[in-house]
């Protein structure tokens, strides 16, 4: 299984344990719909339109699962679809844009948005049951932060924000086409390299933060053969974020095939938004090395 955004990867794995998923065509789910997978849910009932192969028996393990499983609800038996994930992603993206507009004109809210976004984001990641409200709060908070950051960059480099937004959209569409049309998938080797790269970059961010606190400057500005470190580093990190989109698409596809409940589409959308925000910030930072300052 691919490993891009850790949240989406974890959800895809946990989806395999969903007691309402993986019901065959000869069974109905709790909402009365015929299902399409292999192993029946403990709540599935025979579909009279399909011949049942011989006497139906259940082993001890199956009976134990049936008795121990919680009562099925419409939210549980309604499995997530790609349309659900797309709709939730667009909804969260809209909230990010609204928050960014506020943060642009009231940059002082950016710091608050960053703190709230970090805390709420961690809660969403580790909370067992998905909370649509929390994912929406995260989107608004992250928007406040992005708006404030974008305003600072725009004041120094006129036109950088629109260029970064367009570049982010182009990269997203390009990665989506590579996944959906060209059938690009990540190998286990590539996944391992991507994971190591993410950890290395996280270590760099922490080290650069400490370095900045001590010296008041950034290691990104250090020059190698006359080229700021931020340029090759930015190119590598943007490439990592773009590849992470492929991994996210792959993991979302696996989660949907595994049959996660419809409400989990909020968490899948949340994970994709996290990657998009990361991609935008890295593109914004990279472009700053190629644009003339307005100061």
From TrEMBL:
Keywords, in A-Z order: Membrane, Transmembrane, Transmembrane helix
Compositionally biased intervals (Polar residues): 10-21
Transmembrane segments: 108-126, 133-153, 159-179, 191-214, 226-247, 268-291
Region listing for Disordered, in residue ranges: 1-57
Lineage top rank: taxon: Bacteria
Pfam family membership, one: BaxI_1
Protein known as: Bax inhibitor-1/YccA family protein
């Amino acid at each position: 299984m691919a490993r891009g955004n850790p949240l989406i990867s974890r959800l895809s794995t946990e989806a395999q344990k969903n007691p309402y998923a993986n019901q065959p065509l000869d069974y109905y789910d709790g909402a009365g719909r015929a299902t399409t997978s292999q192993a029946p849910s403990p709540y599935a009932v025979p579909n009279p339109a399909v011949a049942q192969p011989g006497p139906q028996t259940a082993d001890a393990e199956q009976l134990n699962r049936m008795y121990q499983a919680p009562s099925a609800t419409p939210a549980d038996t309604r499995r997530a679809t790609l349309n659900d994930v797309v709709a939730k992603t667009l909804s969260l993206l809209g909230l990010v844009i609204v928050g960014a507009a506020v943060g642009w004109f009231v940059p002082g809210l950016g710091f608050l948005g960053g703190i709230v976004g970090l805390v709420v984001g961690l809660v969403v990641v580790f909370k067992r049951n998905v909370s649509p409200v929390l994912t929406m709060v995260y989107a608004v908070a992250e928007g406040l932060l992005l708006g404030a950051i974008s305003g600072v960059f725009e004041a120094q480099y006129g036109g950088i924000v629109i260029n970064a937004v367009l570049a982010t959209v182009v990269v997203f569409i390009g990665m989506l086409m590579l996944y959906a049309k060209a059938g690009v998938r990540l190998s286990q080797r590539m996944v391992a390299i991507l994971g190591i790269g993410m950890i290395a970059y996280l270590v760099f961010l922490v080290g650069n933060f400490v370095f900045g606190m001590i010296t008041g400057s950034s290691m990104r500005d250090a020059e190698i053969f006359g080229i700021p470190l931020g340029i090759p580093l930015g190119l590598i990190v943007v490439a990592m974020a773009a590849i992470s989109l492929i991994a996210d698409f792959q993991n979302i596809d696996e989660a949907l095939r595994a049959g996660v409940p419809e409400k989990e589409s909020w968490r899948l959308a949340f994970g994709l938004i996290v990657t998009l925000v990361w991609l935008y910030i890295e593109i914004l930072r990279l472009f700053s090395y190629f644009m003339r300052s307005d100061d």
